[in-house]
Amino acid sequence: MVYAEWWPCSQCGEVVPRVDGIKIHTNEQGGKQSLIQRRYDLIDPKAIGELARILYEGAQKYDDNNWRKIPTNDHINHALNHIYLHLAKDTAEDHLAHAFTRLMMAVAKEMET
């Protein structure tokens, strides 16, 4: 086993080896596992619930995954529209939840290309 690099662990802060491109973390009990570079535990479940609610409403209105047929720039433009409506104190819709959803869609579309 060759340690190519050493990296700080995002979970405990100690410097951990990166073996064959994979960071290895050892827990307090000596258990070893690959270190994921994502913090799903920091995602707010209520915000995700709002995302799911907006996606549900969109699927009812436009069909499942219709958003995947829309260009990234259109999602960004709609997100900005919702942000500006929120800033203008418009209460016709939950504009932040709609902006969040449109930005998720834009990110997902960009990852497809």
Summary of the model, kept short:
With 113 residues, the chain is an alpha+beta fold. Helices cover 46% and strands 17% of the residues. The two termini are 35 Å apart.
Give your account of this protein's structure.
Pfam families: dGTP_diPhyd_N. InterPro entries: dATP/dGTP_diPOhydrolase_N. It is built from 3 helices and 4 strands; from the N terminus they run ββββααα. With 113 residues, it is of the alpha+beta class. It folds into 2 domains: 38 residues, no CATH class; 70 residues, no CATH class. The chain has a 4-stranded antiparallel beta sheet, with no helix packed on it. Strand 3 and strand 4 form a beta hairpin. Helix 1 crosses helix 3 and helix 2 packs antiparallel against helix 3. It is elongated, with a radius of gyration of 20 Å. The model has no long low-confidence stretch (mean pLDDT 87).
Give the SSE string.
EEEEHHH
Radius of gyration: 20 Å
How many beta-strand elements? 4
Kindly, what is the distance between the CA atoms of the first and last residues, rounded to a whole number of angstroms?
A: 35 Å
* Largest sheet data: 4 strands, antiparallel
Number of domains: 2
- The 3D shape can be described as elongated
Global structural class: alpha+beta
Strand order of the largest sheet: 1-2-3-4
Helical segment count: 3
How helical, in percent, are the residues?
A: 40-55%
User: Could you list the spans in which at least 5 consecutive residues all have pLDDT below 50?
Assistant: none
Task: Give the rounded overall mean pLDDT.
Answer: 87
Instruction: Give the DSSP E fraction (strand runs of 2 or more residues).
Output: 15-25%
